[in-house]
Amino acid sequence: RICVITLAEAHPLLQNGKTITSINYQISANCSRLQNKVSGKSKRGAQFLTELAPLCRISSSDGEEYTIYSCIRGRLIEVNENILSNPALVQEKPSTEGYIAVVLPKFEESKSVTQGLLTQKEYEEVLLKRLNSSS
User: Fold this and answer.
1) Euclidean distance between CA atoms 49 and 46, whole angstroms
2) pTM
3) Which UniProt keywords apply (predicted)?
4) Are 103 and 77 within 8 A, CB to CB?
5) d(CA 18, CA 15)
6) Strands 74-79 and 101-104
7) What pairing do the DSSP bridges indicate for beta strands 26-28 and 3-5?
8) Are 52 and 58 in contact (CB under 8 A)?
9) What is the C-alpha separation between 89 and 97, in angstroms, rounded?
10) What is the spatial distance between Cα 24 and Cα 21, in angstroms, rounded to a whole number?
11) Looking at CB atoms within 10 Å, which of 67, 100, 115, 130 has the fewest?
12) Domain locations in the chain?
């Protein structure tokens, strides 16, 4: 019932040989995802995220900056601090060690969140359609 937030295979950072120069969990002057302190079974102290809540900002060597959003409502359980010292993990192992964060959706909402997700096959079909329409 937890959601691991990663970059999609089609994300621009994983294309075109870009290099990640930095990852920043400081969202605003008063909000850092690194300050998230979670304790206990009920995950007390976890920051609450909406679908549009930024998780981090990733900068690449070509000067581009990408804001990564939560995309789901829930509590922020943890952020991956390992990618701060080794940003290449996000590109080399995006779906394992290079994850961005772990979010726990509200129990009542977890079913509707998972029902709206695409299977790997459906996702690949969407990418194929997008690729065909742009060329």
Assistant:
1) 9
2) 0.84
3) Cell projection, Nucleus
4) yes
5) 7
6) antiparallel
7) unpaired
8) no
9) 6
10) 10
11) 115
12) 3-134
Taking only the tens place, the pLDDT of each residue in 74-120 is 999 999 999 999 999 999 998 899 999 999 987 777 777 777 778 88
Lowest mean pLDDT among 67-71, 97-101, 106-110, 126-130: 106-110
Dist. CA 7–CA 96, nearest whole Å = 11
Q: In 3-state terms, what secondary structure has residue 38? A: coil
Stated as kind and residue range, the H or E segment containing 66 is strand 65-69
**Cα dist from 84 to 10, 33, 89, 103, whole Å:** 22, 12, 9, 19
Residue 118 near residue 126, CB atoms below 8 Å: yes
Place of tokens 């990408």: 66
What are 28-60's pLDDT values in tens digits? 888 889 888 888 887 888 899 998 999 999 999
- HSE (side-chain half, CA atoms, 13 Å) at 33: 27
98 DSSP assignment: T
Place of tokens 């679908």: 51
